[in-house]
Amino acid sequence: MEVKVEVFIYDDQLTLLCKVSMVQESFSISNQSTKPGIQVPRCTLADDLGELWENSRFTDCCLVVAGQEFRAHKAILAARSPVFRAMFEHDMEESKRNRVEIHDLEPQVVKAMMGYIYTGKAPDLDSMADVVLAAADKYLLERLKVMCEDALCRDLSVENAAHTLFLADFHSAGQLKTQALDFITAHVSEVSETSSWKTM
Where is the BTB domain (predicted)? Predict the structure, then answer.
């Protein structure tokens, strides 16, 4: 840093003129390389697996739901769900026949669940989070379960709070249960008048 001061006296007035200059020494960062960089493309694994699912390529098992068949890959199902892993690892009927029959879920719910299993995404949660929550709970898909909890929490209202609390309790969705209880506590007089509260 450099400071210059000049003093002027004119008509019995003192004037000071200060000039401050900052000089930065040049430096180099040893971590920075002068070599050209390579642009690494984004990972397309989720897209590639999603394409396998959508096009039913190289499948080795089948999920049957209400007469509708969904072709799938045992290795992917087993890698993503402990329930499917147990089915295929042990000497169970599903493993012998390469066929899993699902009687308690609707085809569109299984399709959404399978989309999540293959891609990690669940785009239709706003319209079907309650039923996908049941599938996620059944097949131990913890991240999908929390995604459903989040969607249901964002949709909490006086009309659906009691039903949401029931779902959270039934499927052991702890975060959703806490949020639903907090919401009901804050709106107890309105919620207690709803038909879903009265039928609990």
Answer: 59-121
